[in-house]
């Protein structure tokens, strides 16, 4: 086997390992919520994964900084919530999840996603 074949093989294996790690092994970092969580809406949601306790009232405070029309609306389907997010203003959404599980929140066009984990 020639040196250039060895280099290409090693590079290919490295790229495959990186892709596997990035898409399949990367762990989500959930923010543990107290009474409220401030969520910045700018090219997505930050933080995008929030952990809360079951039967505990939580306020999600969304502040939109992105001018994109896609992000001007927040939808939480499981709680039947759909709210307009004005640019530069904070919109508070109160939830009291009764059941453990994962609940998604999305933009109005379903392009940007976040997750509420109820434990």
How would you describe what is shown here?
The protein is 19% helix and 40% strand. The protein is α/β, with parallel strands linked by helices. It has a 6-stranded mixed beta sheet, with no helix packed on it. The protein has a 4-stranded mixed beta sheet with strand order 3-2-5-8, with no helix packed on it. The longest helix has 23 residues, at 3-25. The chain is elongated, with a radius of gyration of 19 Å. The model has no long low-confidence stretch (mean pLDDT 88).
Keywords summarizing the entry:
119 residues, alpha/beta, 6-stranded mixed β-sheet, 4-stranded mixed β-sheet, 10 strands
Question: Roughly how much helix do the residues carry, as a percent range?
Answer: 10-25%
Q: In percent, how much strand structure appears in the residues?
A: 35-45%
Radius of gyration, in angstroms, nearest whole number: 19 Å
Which residues sit in consecutive blocks of at least 5 with pLDDT less than 50?
none
Q: Describe the strand arrangement of the main beta sheet, using strand numbers.
A: 1-4-10-9-6-7
Largest sheet: 6 strands, mixed
- Overall pLDDT score: 88
Number of strands: 10
The backbone outline, from C-alpha atoms, is elongated
Structural class: alpha/beta
Order of helices and strands: HEEEEEEEEEE
Total count of helical runs of at least 4 residues? 1
Q: Span from first to last CA?
A: 55 Å
């Amino acid at each position: 086997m020639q040196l250039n074949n060895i280099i290409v093989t090693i590079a290919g294996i490295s790229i495959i390992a990186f892709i596997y790690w990035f898409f399949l092994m990367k762990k989500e970092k959930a923010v543990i919520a107290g009474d409220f969580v401030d969520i910045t809406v700018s090219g997505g949601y930050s933080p995008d994964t929030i952990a809360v306790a079951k039967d505990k009232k939580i306020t999600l405070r969304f502040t939109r900084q992105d001018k994109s029309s896609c992000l001007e609306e927040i939808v939480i389907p499981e709680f039947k919530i759909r709210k307009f997010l004005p640019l530069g203003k904070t919109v508070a959404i109160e939830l009291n999840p009764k059941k453990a599980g994962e609940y998604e929140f999305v933009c109005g066009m379903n392009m940007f996603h976040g997750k509420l984990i109820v434990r």
